[in-house]
Write a structure and sequence with these properties.
The chain is of the alpha+beta class. It is 30% helix and 20% strand. Among the domains are: 157-384 and 393-447, Alpha-Beta Complex (Spore Coat Polysaccharide Biosynthesis Protein SpsA, Chain A), CATH 3.90.550; 462-552, no CATH class.
Length: 554
């Protein structure tokens, strides 16, 4: 045992370990500098690995379903992210750190006391004189002037609420929350539009306040026509539309009207908080700090929610600033009545409801306005999992509404929405020309650059199917490409997923199916073949969410 210890002393063991580490370092350096082209088999493995990774990263896009969804879901509240590390050296402040906690909103130069100008008045009423004297006595300055100088006037509003077979409890909850939480000086009227409820709604206990009026459509024509009916009889300077299952709280109205007073072309929506449909618990946005959601859309023209992207967060100076939104939910918003009429109001050829919020969003942005969410205004809303109402002409009216939307506002991008001819909406397009509206390219590049745009002219398009047992087992079909070329009958494409199962892709005319992805729920997959060589598919591109990867197929 002593011989063993003397022979292998700690110094010798450490020396042997150091020699071994140096040897590994030299070996790794030699292998790393070796040209990959000298080992074709290694190059193929690396390329194959890169292709599979690109495929997995790009396999998800935002085309979920060609059939429109019937319900708008509640926005998903995001958790407050952990504060990031400082990007500047110690002792150096960033521009964000030097920014004031709250930015001063724009002021009218002609308003009383603007830019430090004196507020002078030649004649005072007896009541104003008493108020001035009380201010001097209590505060030793003219308080009455200070109050007048800092509060610019806000426009009045007419609140329009459409209902059809609505539960009386929720309708009353909505109406009385408006009455209780809106300044009398600003609330001109509440107009309730009964969209042919059966039996006809008895509103005697609602019309007692003289400010509340009720109008009725004897025939079910839907949300769009009913809102136009309510707007036609409104007298307020601003139209505020609310769903019949909302709850307003103190301070909800003033921020909306203030923004419209600053920017008459702004179409503003409150920060919508969820009211639980089971317990009616009110989820206040303040619980999640500075995290907000804004409206978006997918290429099936379905409305959705997304987290405000970094570009918009950087643009906003503080938490009081509006959030520019590509689209809005459409159930709760305010708009200047004159601007509403200027842009042509709603498309009155749309029936019942569905797509009108996305259509209005495109119309506003492309015709010189802006869609915004006002964080300082909070309104609760009951998001139902399904609609309790029927469609007199069937749910195909939603598809018809979306076709009108695409034809009028989306230019060549409408081909992403559908690959078939549809009747053009000539009257609506003429209105767009009269208003000198911008095109859809401007909308995507300026307002929603985060939106992934699929190829407008794919070589061909078809269907994606899962469940093919082997990657070599291809479906056989015959089809034509979008350029009119015949596609070989033996053409078939395979897609490899994260779980190593193969999915088959085959051509079919003007068809797109829903793909149930093997990870993170359901996603749509959009695959376009870019080249045809020697009668077979050469390259396929799987694209989604702004990323994509080339993969050899066929």
């Amino acid at each position: 045992m002593r011989l063993f210890r003397r022979r292998y002393s700690p110094l010798k063991v450490a020396l042997a370990g150091a020699v071994f580490v140096i040897f590994l370092f030299i070996l790794q350096k030699d292998v790393g500098n070796k040209d990959r082209s000298e080992e074709p088999w290694l190059k193929n493995i690396v390329q194959g690995k890169d292709q599979v990774l690109d495929l997995m990263l790009g396999a998800v896009n935002n085309i979920r379903d060609s059939m429109p969804k019937l319900q708008i879901r509640a926005p998903v509240r995001q958790e407050e992210p952990a504060p990031g590390a400082r990007s500047c050296l110690p002792g150096v402040y960033t521009a964000a750190e030097l920014r004031p906690l709250m930015e001063r909103p724009p002021q009218d130069p002609a308003s009383p006391g603007a830019d430090g100008k004196a507020f002078k008045k030649d004649q005072w009423t007896p009541e104003e004189t008493k108020e001035k004297e009380r201010g001097y006595e209590k505060h030793c300055f003219n308080k009455s002037v200070e109050i007048k100088a800092r509060c610019p006037p806000l426009p009045t509003t007419s609140v329009v609420i459409v209902f059809h077979n609505e539960a009386w409890s929720t309708l009353l909850r909505t109406v009385y929350s408006v009455l209780h939480a809106s300044p009398a000086l600003l609330l001109k009227e509440i107009i309730l539009v009964d969209d042919a409820s059966a039996p006809p709604a008895s509103c005697k206990h609602l019309v007692r306040p003289p400010i509340v009026r009720v109008v009725r459509q004897d025939e079910r024509k839907g949300l769009i026509t009913a809102r136009l009916l309510g707007a036609s009889g409104a007298s307020g300077e601003v139209l505020t539309f609310l769903d019949a299952h909302c709850e307003c709280f103190h301070g909800w109205l003033e921020p909306l009207l203030s923004r419209i007073a600053e920017e008459p072309t702004a179409v503003v929506s409150p920060d919508i908080a969820t009211i639980d449909l089971n317990t009616f618990e009110f989820s206040k946005p303040v619980q999640n700090g500075k995290q907000h959601s804004r409206g978006n859309f997918d290429w099936s023209l379905t409305f959705g929610w997304e987290v405000v992207p970094p570009r918009e967060r950087q643009r906003r100076k503080d938490e009081t600033f509006p959030i520019k939104s590509p689209t809005f939910a459409g159930g709760l918003f305010a708009i200047s009545r004159s601007y509403f009429e200027h842009i042509g109001s709603y498309d009155d050829q749309m029936e019942i409801w569905g797509g009108e919020n996305v259509e209005m969003s495109f119309r506003v942005w492309q015709c010189g306005g802006q869609v915004e969410i006002i964080p300082c205004s909070v309104v609760g809303h009951v998001f139902r999992s399904k609609s309790p109402h029927t469609f007199p002409k069937g749910t195909q009216v939603i598809s018809r509404n979306l076709v009108r939307l695409a034809e009028v506002w989306m230019d060549d991008y409408k081909e992403i929405f559908y690959r078939r001819n549809q009747q053009a909406a000539q009257m609506a397009r003429e209105l767009r020309e009269q208003l000198h509206c911008k095109n859809f390219t401007w909308y995507l590049q300026t307002i929603y650059p985060e939106m992934f745009v699929p190829d407008l002219t794919p070589t061909f398009y078809g269907a994606v199917s899962t469940g093919v047992p082997r990657a070599s087992r291809w479906a056989q079909s015959s089809a034509r490409s979008s350029h009119g070329r015949e596609v070989p009958e033996t053409l078939g494409l395979g897609v490899l997923y994260l779980n190593q199962r193969a999915g088959g892709f085959w051509c079919s005319r003007r068809v797109r199916h829903q793909l149930a992805g093997p990870w993170r729920g359901r996603f749509g997959l959009w695959l376009t073949v870019k080249e045809l060589e020697s009668g077979r598919a050469g390259l396929g591109r799987v694209t989604g969410w702004g990323t994509g990867g080339e993969v050899a197929l066929g």
